[in-house]
Amino acid sequence: MWQLLSRLVNNKLLLTQLGKQCKRGLSSSTEKKLNVAVIGGGRIGQVHMETLSFHTPLAKPVMIVDFIEKVAKSTAEKFGVAKYSTDFKDVLKDPNIEAVWICSPSSQHSEQIKALAAAGKHIFCEKPLAITLKEAEEVIAAVEKAKVKMMLAFQRRFDPNFARAKQCVQSGAVGDVYAVHLISRDPAPPPIEYIQSSGGIHNDMAIHDFDIARFMTGSECEEIIAYGACRVDPKIASEGKDIDTAITLLKFKNGAFCTIDNCRQSPSGYDQRVEVFGSKGLVRFGNNFPNNVFIEDGQSIRRSDLPFNFFMDRYTDAYRNETKEFVKCILENKEPPTSGRDGTAAMAMAIAAKKSLLEKRPVKLSEITA
Amino acid sequence: MWQLLSRLVNNKLLLTQLGKQCKRGLSSSTEKKLNVAVIGGGRIGQVHMETLSFHTPLAKPVMIVDFIEKVAKSTAEKFGVAKYSTDFKDVLKDPNIEAVWICSPSSQHSEQIKALAAAGKHIFCEKPLAITLKEAEEVIAAVEKAKVKMMLAFQRRFDPNFARAKQCVQSGAVGDVYAVHLISRDPAPPPIEYIQSSGGIHNDMAIHDFDIARFMTGSECEEIIAYGACRVDPKIASEGKDIDTAITLLKFKNGAFCTIDNCRQSPSGYDQRVEVFGSKGLVRFGNNFPNNVFIEDGQSIRRSDLPFNFFMDRYTDAYRNETKEFVKCILENKEPPTSGRDGTAAMAMAIAAKKSLLEKRPVKLSEITA
Amino acid sequence: MWQLLSRLVNNKLLLTQLGKQCKRGLSSSTEKKLNVAVIGGGRIGQVHMETLSFHTPLAKPVMIVDFIEKVAKSTAEKFGVAKYSTDFKDVLKDPNIEAVWICSPSSQHSEQIKALAAAGKHIFCEKPLAITLKEAEEVIAAVEKAKVKMMLAFQRRFDPNFARAKQCVQSGAVGDVYAVHLISRDPAPPPIEYIQSSGGIHNDMAIHDFDIARFMTGSECEEIIAYGACRVDPKIASEGKDIDTAITLLKFKNGAFCTIDNCRQSPSGYDQRVEVFGSKGLVRFGNNFPNNVFIEDGQSIRRSDLPFNFFMDRYTDAYRNETKEFVKCILENKEPPTSGRDGTAAMAMAIAAKKSLLEKRPVKLSEITA
Amino acid sequence: MWQLLSRLVNNKLLLTQLGKQCKRGLSSSTEKKLNVAVIGGGRIGQVHMETLSFHTPLAKPVMIVDFIEKVAKSTAEKFGVAKYSTDFKDVLKDPNIEAVWICSPSSQHSEQIKALAAAGKHIFCEKPLAITLKEAEEVIAAVEKAKVKMMLAFQRRFDPNFARAKQCVQSGAVGDVYAVHLISRDPAPPPIEYIQSSGGIHNDMAIHDFDIARFMTGSECEEIIAYGACRVDPKIASEGKDIDTAITLLKFKNGAFCTIDNCRQSPSGYDQRVEVFGSKGLVRFGNNFPNNVFIEDGQSIRRSDLPFNFFMDRYTDAYRNETKEFVKCILENKEPPTSGRDGTAAMAMAIAAKKSLLEKRPVKLSEITA
Questions:
Q1: Strand partners, C125
Q2: Which CATH superfamily is domain C32-148 in?
Q3: Chain D contacts of C310, Cβ < 8 Å?
Q4: What gap in Å lies between CA A149 and CA A135, rounded to an integer?
Q5: Whole-prediction pTM value?
Q6: What span, in angstroms and rounded, lies between the C-alpha atoms of A140 and A138?
Q7: C-alpha dist (Å) from residue B121 to B112, B329, C81
């Protein structure tokens, strides 16, 4: 392969390439790095920690917090982080820390954001901002007052498929958006205990699609009608007090309509598909697969494997991209691409959808207040 | 998303998952790690260094060697490696180093392998083993005598597409292999200087396909007939003394035939496709793309983007997988999946192909001797 | 090609094959044929005439009726039909005619069906049965009283894609149907004059999808909510008093939901796609294309052509299959697969959808009466 | 559907459309029609008879010949043809017959062509022209001397996929052709008796691909090397004296290479695929399927059905198009798109391939003489 040897013939090119490949240290060691902390050493905390450690040359994790000491300590060791703690307040006290990734349980988000903002830290926060819309508004106000940057983790926007589709819409290739169709189904339902504390399918699953509907239409939602039923497992209704199959129809201020199909169970695996249709064309994408091998065995012509079955596998790049993007926004003093307002908009849509389902009528977003 | 919160309801699951996700340190710090060195800080050296540092919990890079001191030093800093050197002999002297990744220029491979084997180091070596078949045989003998493990880097075998296709063949879904068809084209030709020192298209490009033909058929090549021409750029013939378009037909001992289409230029980008056809079925795969978005704009229905254009992007997973695999082989004392013999087999095929092209006749592999 | 010569070696096989291929006369000339008439020599009348003449060995067209004498006469000549007329009553008077294909303007359907039924003729009728639901009920009653067979031309059910998808649903591969998603868009809007007399988009376009929703779910519609807007051309609203973009959400008695996306304009051409999702799997299909050639030209990877742009091209097989099927039903004395009840069910859905759009609320089908 | 009613609002358009749809009689009955005969009432004869009868308004079959009287008679009845005969010489005697479709056994072609040409009839001939190259040359000479038109039935050229791919090549989208790859496999081997009289796989199967290679490259073949083996059924070698798996590599005068993969057995069904690769891009197509339904059943994502399994189903349009084309060429006095020379070129390639296989060396086309 000629590229392997290109070093010998084209040293200059090599150095440029090396520069691009370098994830971390070839940036001169005297270059300013952003000192960051991560709160929460759970699954998603590990993901952000890895990105910050290995794939973000200009970031340097300096503290990891987890309420289980063993997790905090082992994570610190794993990523070579100097400090760990079981109390997020240690982050507040450390003047060295410039930005914080909040990966703690949802119920702690609003308190942590307010405290971190007051301490002048930039904040990357996993969804949701807060449990109630009112709290979320308070959080946004606190952040605005503190003049720190905050980015809310709607990771799908940073996935190569979603981002490329959005780019097509923005380029004008689709024209005026007439309709958006979203399929978003989980492989299998979670435990009933989880459903009981999830806030319902609109709050827990559809909220990602509500955000993507806003992202793709480039508009605000005006009205929602939600249908749904318990089809997958009767316990989801009887014990979980929830539906498991939700069809939601949205009308946006720019005239676009959107349908969303959510289901807690999908035999084909984690099913994530998008279509945006408009006056000039359409853009669409299907699922991602672990490989693109097809088998023809005399009986059928089929893909060798089902799509990635787990959101962590499906959205690996998206999680990485969003963290890198926020680091860039801080260092280049740019507005983060997703804001607290994106969070409250999606929350309000989830509330409207639930209300529509219960009251069996179209609900206007103007009816929803904090 | 329920999985984010699953920690609260299912702590045991979480820990299992964490275990899987962990790339490095959550393995107890007292666990034995394999101490490794990397020779060569060029592009591919950086790739292996990243895998060994961040994605292989049980490996620990302890030295990096590059003949340019600046490169050696900055790479050591980047990956937090304790030692760096400009002389590979420092690796020999360090009793702490158990395994070495050779990413140096091809001309140095045979000398380095022999010295490392003699020093009792396990060896992962980028292609080729040596410049001549004779030298390669000596290298293999030296390694066998020293009883160290050696793995030759045919990375494509570790790519998810190639590996899955092979698995289908092995599963019996394809039956007896009748024909293999390989397309393997580069986006654009390298500089003439590179071609002049490349050993020709069979040695430089087709050698990967020769290996894959052996891999997919599970057999040894018996006879080759090579056709080719200079179609892309007349300088490749006049100054490079090479062809740029090669069609090669191979016959294997188990009766399988194979066609290979190599070209130094592909308007569609880096084009890597495989079909294996047999008595019971076929398995095939096409290219990998940066996303799976399709645009319909009233004029056409098309993919939003061409395939990955660069082998480093196309084979990212493959490079990572091969290095992880060798670490595993050493630690579990297993035979490496690719050996020096795989290297000499592919070299002999390249020699036979060149001979066929020059002599305009089918050449038997039995005619090729070290 | 061995099959061409197979006659020589396998004469018996040939005769069997010939028998299958034969569309008409190899059936012994003494075999009973069904004498049929076609009313209406417009586009769809021509299609049915061709099928009846050339592709239905056991049918024999004996009269063609069109109110334009020139059309009636030339059609009779074209297909070698003995009689033509400008008055459908001539069909009633001819005791030789056993079955009639009604392809006249919609406003004449109910009168013609009633008269034909009273005269003891079997009836194949293009949509709709009648202009109002009340009239349609009368028509059905008349047909039932006369004990003749009637089939309503929902041709999509006989298209290879729709029919195969239905078969998958019926086979149990999909399990319980949770959701059906239908895309059904026309390439470009019709003239305003047409829209003015069309009865609106639900009656004119969506009615096919309402039928397919019933077909795919295997259930009756319980409730509809219709959204829509005039997005394509303001004249469709101002002069046509209609919408051009309609998103409709349906709930079926078996719990299935259905979304329908209709638009009078589709830059990608005639866009007809279906997905049926259920407890065990899903079945889906996209558009039909004039060929399956892909071009990669260095800029893009694209289909060589857009889908069939015209319903007559897209549904060629469907039109042929439905007519053959009705001939078979008569000759074998079987129940036709689509009935007058299918027609009134779809009409009621269109009325409910229009009502929902006007009253901006979900409408139950139980609210719709003849 | 607005188009159905368009007659009411747009009568002029309707008449134009009708004109297009009309296959036969709406052409004024005084218009000159081409009187044709068909020799051979086997499978392919039936196909051409149907096209000539029902889909070619300006042709009129006036005689059908088959050596089995029952077949001749029933075919005449089926298509309403005035005369039938068991002796092709009756065609010669009938001054009314202007053109003849030869669908008789291959061994009779040369004699019939020469007689028909001498009688001044235009000739459409199924492959091959003759059994030997020498005879074929004589046939061509006879046709040229008689100044009648002759078209040889290479139907694939008239298939929508092949024709569209060729058009892409001709449009310049592919640039200079570097390589053509053809896959052409039969579902299952024919009876041994058939193979014994087939002239071998190159003459019987590959000959279509040899023609397509010339068609796609737009050049003449210079050299061939043929490999092959008996892999599918040992009787094909022992009793049939043939191979069943053939890989052939061709070099064309314009520098293009071509690989052809033929096999008598394909578990995926009738497998017909093409790729043309060049300096500016590539064009490719895969198989045709009876529908485009995909099923996802929790275990796999697959097409609902295998490709069309039989050449008569796969090439339905092609057979129809070629016959229409020849009628047009006669009536408009144009050169037929495929000539006797196309036939002899493909025959010579088959002879060269067989010679290469036997002599185990590349064979130049210049070695092959009549």
A1: C102, C152
A2: NAD(P)-binding Rossmann-like Domain (3.40.50.720)
A3: 3
A4: 18
A5: 0.93
A6: 5
A7: 11, 14, 92
Sheet of strand B99-102: strand arrangement: B83-85, B59-65, B34-39, B99-102, B122-125, B150-152
CA B117, chain centre distance (Å):
21
Whether A181 and C225 lie within 8 Å, measured CB to CB = no
SS3 at position B284: strand
β-bridge pairing C177-185 and C257-263: parallel
- Nearest CA-CA partner of A5 in A13, D259, B111: A13
Across the A/B interface, how many CB contacts are shorter than 8 Å?
218
Residue in C268, C301, C303 nearest the CB of B298: C268
Domain C156-314+340-367: CATH superfamily is Dihydrodipicolinate Reductase; domain 2 (3.30.360.10)
Cα–Cα dist C240/C195, whole Å = 6
Q: Which of residues 251-270 of A touch C (CB under 8 A)?
A: 251, 255, 257, 259, 261, 263, 265-268
Query: Which residue is associated with the tokens 């007052």?
Result: A145
Residues of A in contact with C249 (CB under 8 A): 225, 227, 247, 249, 259
C105, C311, C312: residue with CB nearest D8: C105
Task: Say whether B224 sits in a helix, a strand or coil.
Answer: strand
Concatenated DSSP letters of D133-160: HHHHHHHHHHHHHHT--EEE--GGGGSH
Strand B177-185 with B257-263, pairing: parallel
For residue B296, give the 3-state DSSP assignment.
strand
CA-nearest residue to A78 within chain B is B25
What DSSP character marks residue C45? H
Chains contacting chain C through 3 or more C-beta pairs under 8 A: A, B, D
Q: With CB atoms and an 8 Å threshold, state whether C4 touches D46.
A: no
- SS3 of B26-42: CCCCCCCCEEEEEECCC
Please name the member of A179, A267, A279 whose beta carbon is closest to the beta carbon of C261.
A179
Contact C241, C222 (CB under 8 A): no
Pairing status of strand B245-252 against strand A257-263? unpaired
Domain locations in chain A?
A: 20-148, 156-317+340-367
Inter-chain contacts counted by CB atoms under 8 A, chains A and D = 28
> Which residues of chain B make contact with D227, given a CB cutoff of 8 A?
249, 251, 257
Nearest CA in chain A to C183: A181
Task: Please check whether residue B264 is in contact with residue B188, taking contact to mean a CB–CB distance below 8 angstroms.
Answer: yes
The DSSP output letter for C206 is: I
Q: Are residues A278 and A236 in contact, defined by beta-carbon separation less than 8 angstroms?
A: no
- Find the radius of gyration of the CA atoms of chain B: 22
CATH number, domain D21-148, options 3.40.50.720, 3.30.450.20, 3.30.390.50, 3.40.50.300: 3.40.50.720
Across chain A, which distance is largest between two alpha carbons, in Å? 72
Residue with tokens 């470009």: C188
Residue type, A57: P
**A351-370 residues touching B, CB cutoff 8 A:** none
pLDDT tens per residue across all 370 residues of chain B: 444 334 333 333 333 333 333 333 333 444 679 999 999 999 999 999 999 998 898 999 999 999 999 999 999 998 889 999 999 999 999 999 999 999 999 999 999 999 999 999 999 999 999 999 999 999 999 999 999 999 999 999 999 999 999 999 999 999 999 999 999 999 999 999 999 999 999 999 999 999 999 999 999 999 999 999 999 999 999 999 999 999 999 999 999 999 999 999 999 999 999 999 999 999 999 999 999 999 999 999 999 999 999 888 999 999 999 999 999 999 999 999 999 999 999 999 999 999 999 999 999 999 999 8
Residue C308 tokens read as 């069939």
- Residue C90 sits at the vertex; the CA angle it makes with C87 and C95, to the nearest 5 degrees, is 160
